[in-house]
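Input record (one chain):
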Amino acid sequence: MPAQDSSENNAAPLYGVVSYGRELSGAYLSAIQQAAGVAGARILELENAAGDGYAVTKLLVEYDGGIETLRMAVTAAAAALGGDARGAASAVVPSSLLEPARKLLVMDVDSTLIKQEVIELLAAHAGREAEVAAVTEAAMRGELDFAQSLHQRVRALAGLPESVIPAVGARIELSDGAELLVKEFLTAGHAVAVVSGGFSQVLDPLAERLQLTYARANLLGVQDGVLTGTVEGPVVDRAVKAESLRGWAAAQGIEQRHTIAVGDGANDLDMLAAAALGVAFNAKPAVQAAADAVLNLPNLDVVQHFVKL
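The corresponding structure, as predicted from the sequence alone:
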């Protein structure tokens, strides 16, 4: 996460402590507030919100001990509750995302913006879905080099008619709350982008429908109306995802400390680290361990509560 949270007039920096879950019990919220207080944070404001199937409580706190120390205190309090937390979690948000500044939201696509893995939908047309799914799972856990695994999986698509692309596009389902999240950010004047290890032929119509500010993905090779089993140009890997976030922020005149990234797999790790807040969305264990915030609800629109819109 980039450097941030400079103090003004010697005042302690402000942070957001955001708790979310299907239910937020009084015991859980009390434990989080107590942990923040014991760490030395001073609670300035408390706000409750709700979405479709989840609840949110947001604390605005003043704290001069550093964001990582506050995160450790809040995480420890949540972990101590165990099963009593009823699936609840909490995230500490840097002050830069609470400022009334224009922000950039960058999301992964497969299993983040949408519920499926596009390459597996394509592979199903070749009767090789299980084979490709196994390679995808290993790549998302970080066990395989992403670029090599992508080329391996795309070879399974060789010979398919180009008509499978719109057929797969028609089967795509947005994650719960995805459309609302995008709309809220764009309506508030922020920028929204997606960067995918999937394919632009499938992503571009979706990006146009959602009116996204930017979209980037791989290009499937097509010749004479048939998939060649190749990818044209450089692969969108984890380095490209992070570079995209930085480049889009610069192009929009948005400081990197005003960015937020959301993803689920190892290919998203650099992008999550580059953002002011990296969010693991129903992610693989290694991604959850590295992220600033962990969201294990199906509701992607919870992300809107991590920033000041």
